[in-house]
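Following up on my earlier message about adenosine-5'-triphosphate. Here are the inputs again, as you asked, copied directly from the submission form:
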Amino acid sequence: MQPLANITPLKLVSRAGAIQVDGVGHTYRTSGQDVVALSDVSFEVKPGRFVVLVGPSGCGKSSLLMMMAGLRRPTSGTILISGAPIDVPDPNRVGVVFQEPSLFPWLTAEENVEFPLTLRGVARKERRAKAQEALQLVGLDGFGTRHPHELSGGMKQRVSIARGLVQDPPVLLMDEPFAALDEQTRMTMGDELLRIWAATGKTIVFVTHSLTEAVYLADEVVVMSARPGRIVDRLEVALPRPRTFEMLSGDTFGSLRDRIWRHIRKSA
Ligand SMILES: Nc1ncnc2c1ncn2[C@@H]1O[C@H](COP(=O)(O)OP(=O)(O)OP(=O)(O)O)[C@@H](O)[C@H]1O
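Thanks, got it. Here's what our run produced:
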């Protein structure tokens, strides 16, 4: 009989929030010619990590995010979210925030946040309670009855983040969410996002063109080549948390940003 010490204990590991991208490629078939956007992209994200994707314009970052959100099918390879394939959007597993907040102008902030729950037929009282909780999380307590035109750019993006979080998905995908904001608001929103991330423990995959934003936010930066996008580097950001403004001028920060820039310059 096998001695007990040699038996590997069965590990009950929760895969909620884990992302596995395996050999993913994507080709857009247009009437003129095929556009190979991505080729053989593989990486894993452990639950609760903050991963930032960077790469030259047109390298396929948004396409990759759309596939991770179930909004597009890979031409090759597989994507697992929380251990299962993602073939169609599933707001219970993945929340998505885009560059433009894309709020309905005729709905209040609260109603915009509630919208995914309204689509699912959730009762009004429960919808309202969840929307208020999400608005509180993004720092918009008391602004629920305002319409989008009564909110600043940063506040609108907060509403959009609250909408992405309202169904409490373990994964949040963010495609250049702060790109349209002025620099000061963008910095503040970065800190706000880190606060929300720390409070919720979500897995976040965040796309940006800003190398400073990438290093400031990330546990890990994944660098992609020019189209067809492939992964050319993965950098662990070994800066302590909470991140602070002072870190931006430190040597560690500078050398990480330089390393990313060297890849991007080579690809451009
Ligand atoms: N619907 C489409 N039909 C044809 N080609 C497309 C389509 N969408 C994207 N592409 C092409 O696929 C490539 C990747 O596009 P994608 O938007 O994913 O890149 P990106 O890295 O997010 O770009 P950017 O950083 O400029 O936002 C680009 O060459 C783009 O022109």
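One observation from looking it over: The helical segments are 61-68, 109-119, 124-137, 153-165, 183-200, 211-217, 251-267. Hope that helps, and feel free to reply on this thread.
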